[in-house]
Design brief:
Length: about 450
Amino acid sequence: MEKRELLRGLPAVDAVLREPAAEVLVSRHGAKATTAAVREALGRARREILAGADPKISGETVLAVAAELLEGRGLRRVVNATGVVLHTNLGRSVLSERAVEAAVEAATSYSNLEYDISAGKRGSRYDHAVPLLKELTGAEDALVVNNCAGATLLALSAVVAGRSDEEDADASGEPEVIVSRGQLIEIGGGFRIPEVLELSGARLREIGTTNRTRLSDYERAINENTRAILWVHPSNFEIQGFTESVGVAELSTLGPPVVADVGSGALLPISDEPRVEAAIRDEAALTIFSGDKLLGGPQAGIAVGSARWISGMRRHPLARALRADKLCLAALEATLAAYLEGTAGNELPTVRMLHAPAEEMREKANQLAGKLVQVAPNLSIDVVPSVARSGGGTLPLYEIPSYAVRLKDEAGEAEVLAEQLRVAEPPVIGRVGEERLWLDVRTLLDGDEEAILEAVEVLDG
Ligand SMILES: *Cc1c(COP(=O)(O)O)cnc(C)c1O
């Protein structure tokens, strides 16, 4: 049929809304949203026709697309077949069962969030998770806030604000924080160290160069206005070649408190990622890291360090604005308990995915491919070694050996195949390469295999 004819054959918005099935959508999502979704569905059909397709369009099919659009809104499960374990766009870490149970209990019952049970009076939400963090890291004290960006802002604000009058006696100018130019980084989502420093009220005192900063650069920059030295782990990129930087241990000998933003929160060894305990052993005044990166817990910003500076953070007015909620605290405690009990490697899905041997991935991929061949005889399917990544702005060059199932259809349009799996329920997110769709099995969780089989079966049929 001619394009023009096909376009003329499209139903009108009103006609679609008079379909019996439209009533359900209107009652569920309201007339306004349903009409908008029908318009969008018709727009898509029009674009498909103009692109040369001959879609079988009826009121019913338009409504089906509209329903997908309406129901597709909101936060929901997706299958991560990208092989990127801490995929920031897909929600970073996956909680353990124990963490989920703890969060559910905190959500569905009252708790001692801010209540001291033995004393029978008001307690502090800041006390939760603290004993576990102290035991795990060897730090004097700890504080949990909303995320690592918040913890960094709060730590800097506290060290800028928090000197006694006596110590401030020599200060004549604006408070300064020293940072190496090699660490003036952007983490992602617009979180830039120089801007955070400015927000904290400190003047940025940048030293050294992008590739080389020496201890003597720090020594020369220290003056009576220096409030802290900030050390940032450049976690999402690496500079190789002619480089030099100074570690936390050496910086800690210089006098001003060292705030170490280690970012990824590795409590177990992985690649050459700096471990949290190391920063504390190296006597950083404050060590800051994320709860939902390599740690494998809920979104949180964790600060551990000297009692004096943690207490300064706790008392700062920003602490209230950045405080962690009870679900996070409950899930974090359960996550940390797994580390203390030595079960983290098996119990925490994120940690398990990061460390599982490649051989296990090969078996998993072969198994999935075997089942896919059954449900999708028209696709060409193979299993190949692939490279998984930790993601989430951690370990950018670290390659985790993995395996992927690759799909290719007759037409060879891998992008189309990828889109078809993305609109499945739940959506399956893979990666396109070498004209095939790659499904990396390292990031597949329980139940994901079934979801992939269903999605592929539908599109093959
Ligand atoms: C990821 C990261 C942050 C931000 O952590 P969020 O928990 O996402 O706020 C800050 N600093 C470093 C070094 C990081 O790697």
